[in-house]
User: Fold this.
Amino acid sequence: MKLLITGGAGFIGSAVVRLAIARGHQVVNLDALTYAACLENVAGVAESPLYAFEQTNIRDRAALDRIFAAHRPDAVMHLAAESHVDRSIDGPGAFIETNITGTYNMLESARDFWVGEGRPEAFRFHHISTDEVFGSLPNDPLVKFTEDTAYDPRSPYSASKAASDHLVRAWHETYGLPVVLTNCSNNYGPYHFPEKLIPVIILNALAGKPLPIYGDGSNIRDWLFVEDHADALLLVVEKGRVGRSYNIGGENERTNLELVQTLCAILDEKRPKAQGSYTDQITFVADRPGHDARYAIAPGRIREELGWRPSVTVEEGLARTVQWYLDNENWWKPLQGRKGIGERLGVKT
Ligand SMILES: NC(=O)c1ccc[n+]([C@@H]2O[C@H](COP(=O)([O-])OP(=O)(O)OC[C@H]3O[C@@H](n4cnc5c(N)ncnc54)[C@H](O)[C@@H]3O)[C@@H](O)[C@H]2O)c1
Assistant:
């Protein structure tokens, strides 16, 4: 399959690019290289004859048309987005322009290309989204997000992703574009950009800095190893039913405090401090405005229809992730100089 993957220099997109190439797919990686991008994430496949890179902004419709015409993909996997909730609180404009207008441009470019090719049935537009579009759950283990949960986004980030999901569904219903959608829970793993919770905790711990926990640390997230997400995405683009959405999650709910304590325990074992535990560095800080209490995915549809299962437990995945950061200082050190990294964002309202 020839895949046009947007956002392939980011955290999840690069995992999809690496896995797709390992499985013999051709990949065109389309990425604007924003502050969150890192071409090192795909350095291992950049020389492959299966790989091509286009530095392009999805806000630029004419450039997208040129890329569709030049590469003639079998499927699009659309991951490019502004992705950090805290940044969406400080500057929502970029989220509207990239996540909504950019997705609209992708849909229109894909539609023109698909119509021009004679509307091939096998073509797919796979939109990659988040569970945050469903809002916040009560703390009841029996209540989880299903594909039928009503949308209730509460941050500028999740609202912009929800809007993009609606556009994708509308392009299917109105124009017949063969789309599939996925909504995934929080990812973690290698190459996670050092502004997100897990890398922040690992790197602050190693630097002897405070480990910031928003509010009282009781917010619950459902964690999935990024390589398992990439595997699920390739399964959906190949076998997912047209017009359908699939929730993807690892069924690994943890409060933020439990997660940070687990990371500290792994670090205590792998890189013991001269004295005490990394948990001594835990510090509670002002909460994020509108902080959703709980996310939890019911992944029944992808499991039953497509036979997907995560390959690692959260314990294995977190241990592998910590080890990866210990082994890859050359990757994360330069990123700490990028704008906003290490600063507290998203508290001014
Ligand atoms: N991180 C998560 O836990 C998570 C969970 C579920 C869904 N998602 C979704 O998965 C996708 C990827 O998330 P991520 O964590 O890898 O994000 P990321 O921020 O690490 O990467 C985003 C990539 O998109 C590129 N990009 C941003 N704006 C662009 C533009 N205007 N034109 C072209 N490229 C642009 C960036 O350069 C970057 O390489 C997003 O759509 C996100 O909403 C993320």
Notes: The CA atoms of residues 202 and 322 lie 7 Å apart.
